Amino acid sequence: MSVPSRPGISPQTLTKAAVEIVDEPEPGSIRIPYFDIGAERTSHCRWRLPKPKPNGQKYTQPPDSGYPVYFPPEPLRSVGGDLYITEGEFKALKLYQEGFQVIGLPGLYCHQSRKDEEDGGSRDDKLQLLPGIAAAIRLVKPSRVVFLCDADTSHNYDFARSAHFLAYVLQRDFNGLPVILPRLPADGPKGIDDFGAAHPRRFFPSV
Q1: From 65, 95, 198, 201, which residue has the greatest number of CB atoms within 10 Å?
Q2: In the prediction, which pLDDT does 188 show?
Q3: Cα–Cα distance for residue pair 113/10, rounded to 1 Å
Q4: Cβ atoms within 10 Å, residue 25
């Protein structure tokens, strides 16, 4: 197993998560296996490409494989406190490595279209929370959900839409569970993994 180098994440954490360099779909790709909520490996995975495609695409996954939540390679615990939701598997692994209860999204969106969608109703009524998020909340029983994404969230409309829907559903279905939106400095490292690599002695944020 050839373990890649990733900002802020130890080789031990990457090995535990079975992250490795592979030759498919392109030589030098990084395969990221997925786990279920009990830390059992699933059949799903994504690949980080060795270099972005002309359209900016950095990751790929099997066709029609959905939008599953990334769980860390260790079971979540029913401990209350904060449950972190972040964008991307590597950011989730960084937070997991530092002892946070965390799940990762393969992008910014925490929702998907409802299969039973009907005409009419609001935009929010035509969406549903990703099942993995709801399952994690029910297991961890957090006092807060912390939605932490990249340093550009202050001017990223897609993040605002996703955060709004998350707060809407938690208010409606989870007894008003609060959503906290901490922000990395806009002029600093892009993600929490990059921030941890740049500031290893002051990693833990106050939220």
Answers
A1: 95
A2: 85
A3: 36
A4: 12
Strands (E), 117-205: 127-129, 144-148, 179-180
Q: Scanning the structure block, which residue is given the tokens 């060795």?
A: 50
Inter-residue contact 72 to 102 (CB < 8 Å): yes
Long-range contacts of 21-28 (CB under 8 A, 24+ apart): 22/47, 25/49, 25/60, 26/50
Strand ranges in the chain using DSSP code E only, listed in sequence order: 20-22, 29-35, 41-48, 59-60, 82-87, 102-105, 111-113, 127-129, 144-148, 179-180
- The CATH code of the domain at 66-201 is 3.40.1360
Token duo for residue 92: 């989730």
Contact (CB, 8 A) for 125 and 165: no
